[in-house]
Amino acid sequence: MKLFTTIASLVAAAEGAALGHGMDLQNVLQSVISIAQSHQSTKPPNFLFVITDDQDLQLDSVSYTPHILKHMRDKGTFFQNHFVTTALCCPSRVSLWTGRQAHNTNVTDVSPPHGGYPKFVDRGFNDNFLPVWLQEAGYDTYYTGKMFNAHTVDNYYSPYINGFNGSDFLLDPFTYSYLNSTYQRNHEPPVSYEGQHTIEVITKKAMGFLEDALEGDRPFFVTVAPIAPHSNVDPMALNHGDGERQVISMSAPIPMEKHKHLFQDVKVPRTANFNPDEPSGVSWVQGLEQQNQSVVDYGDFFYRSRLQALQGVDELVDSLVTRLEESDKLDNTYIIYTSDNGFHIGQHRLPPGKTCGFEEDIRVPLFVRGPGVPEGHVQNAVTTHIDLAPTIFQLAGIPHRSDFDGTAIPVTPGFAGPRHEHVTVEFWGSSVFEGDYSQIGIGGSTMMPNNTYKSVRLLGPGYNLYYSVWCTNEHELYDLSTDPYQLHNLYPSSLRSEEIEPQLLGRGISHTIKRLDALLLVLKSCKGSTCIKPWETLQPGQSIHTLGEALNERYDLAYSQQPEVSFNWCDTGYIIEAEGAQAPLTTRYGVPWDIWV
Fold it and tell me: Which range is the signal sequence, renumbered to this chain (predicted)?
């Protein structure tokens, strides 16, 4: 409104000047409006960032959120190939806020010693992440909702989270309790909201912070992080694990009362990988039993509960965007909507949960709207969570940081910058099962150990692949162009001779695997530009930018000499000694690549 007041003053002054000098009032007014628009467009943009918790893309949850579709899909761009790099909330969020892969943040779990808020602080990121950088660039920053796991009623002040002009954080152990949440505002003591639905609470807090941002004179960055559709966690129902950590019992999310009647006939999409007759995957996934009807029915109930819980988020987004539309700031504000990781229910016989490298867990919604962003557009470029901080930097006019492992995504048609066709997906530790039928792990636990893996997801001209190496040194290779539900592992038990081996991408599968493995070898320990342009590390001095180019047969000998991705043992965190070779060969007997090949 302050800009409009300024314009009104200018108009009044112009009117007086025009009348006094016989000028054309209409031309004067048009000049004033042009000056005001130019002034507005040169101001740094504002940001509204909404991040949900565990929201799927592959199970079609977005189709059940009409306000988000209206405000974000129809008025912005949908990035349909957007991936997380770690399918677990805390590591994924730290990667998002720092623009770095989890192997570079070394925050790889939801709780100590390998993750959670204490590890975030120990790694020095409380002074070195996106909101701090934005404040240094002149932004007012606000946050409400879930920030990190293990950010608790006991440690919230040691230290306080930096980087926000105003904050109101959910705190453990009450973070995921829909009807018994605890929030902690700025540097004030925690406040319990027992008896109130957490979405109702966060809506009031979010609208308050947005109002503060709109009334300020500086550009703003407002983040709203509701927990839906994450599972409900009763803080009083903690099941003690093996002595090293507590295992929390997770049940279906609890929707607001007014939404509990919705979607009564909706079921989990019955895709080809839903509770398949034949086992799929490798390692412990391949050993899962087919679900009986009771478990399938419960999965449908769990899915409906998630959709019902998302209705509160849908209404929250409607309130936020509507308030922006009523202000004079909408035309200079980017609105971003995404989630920290995906979710599976029944695919590959899995109970509710995340942590796997399958599409359901690593693909998440990403919608962006704002100045210059095409409306109703679908973007096919490969994008990841580590690209979001660089994207915000570019939109805000802040110089790119050399320690970013990602690169700005093509938000506007005028985008110019390096793109990548790959996603590095990595995980350490155990897979956690959720829901009433979750105790199917070893010894009846809700966890399955040895879920550590490194993988690469690749989408390029003529190929759509997922390649993974587990800490057990088992391999997975899926061609999603012919097997979109990842049911048929193409990785051979033994690589056969050229005469009889199967073909993949026009080459013998062994040659394709050699390239994929070498690419993963670079990406599993990459830093900075190496994560964006890994082929330059593999083939320095040559114009190789894609897997398709690297498949040229003249490079076969060189790739056959590369060390393979492997693990020395399974560990619960990022322990370099456990992870085998760390770098590819770029010379052979001192001879550089460009001569060697």
Answer: 1-16
Confirm if 47 and 336 have CB atoms less than 8 A apart. Answer: yes
Q: Which residues pair with 247 in a beta bridge?
A: 239
CA distance 211 to 398: 25
Cβ atoms of 255 and 309 within 8 Å: the answer is: yes
Count CA atoms within 13 Å of residue 250 on its CB side: 24
Other beta carbons within 10 angstroms of residue 17's beta carbon come to 12
DSSP per-residue codes, 421-469: SEEEEEE-S-EEB-STT---SGGG-SEES---EEEEEEEETTEEEEEEE
Q: Which two tokens stand for residue 536?
A: 């330059």
For residue 128, the 8-state DSSP code is: S
- Give start and end residues of each alpha helix (H) in 106-197: 116-122, 130-136
Q: pLDDT digit string (tens) for 56-73?
A: 999 999 999 999 999 999
Please report, as a single letter, which amino acid is at residue 403: D
> What is the set of domains in the chain, with CATH numbers?
2-41 (no CATH), 45-413 (3.40.720.10), 461-596 (no CATH)
Give residue-wise pLDDT tens across range 502-527: 999 999 999 999 999 999 999 999 99
Tell how far CA 219 is from the center of its chain.
24
Type of residue at 243: G
Q: Peptide bond before 374: cis, by omega within 30 degrees of 0?
A: no
Q: Categorise residue 355: left if φ over 0, alpha if ψ from -120 to 50, beta otherwise.
A: left
DSSP label at residue 70: I
Return the number of other C-beta atoms located less than 10 Å from residue 506's C-beta. 11
| 184 strand-pairing partners | 169
Name the residue type at position 181: S
Q: What is the pTM of this model?
A: 0.91
157 and 187 Cβ atoms separated by less than 8 Å: yes
The CA distance from 98 to 553, in Å, is 39
Q: What are phi and psi of 13, to 5 degrees?
A: -65, -40
By annotation, the residues acting in catalysis are 89
Of 265, 355, 272, 277, the closest CA to residue 301 belongs to 265
Q: What is the pLDDT of residues 36-53, one digit of tens each?
A: 444 445 799 999 999 999
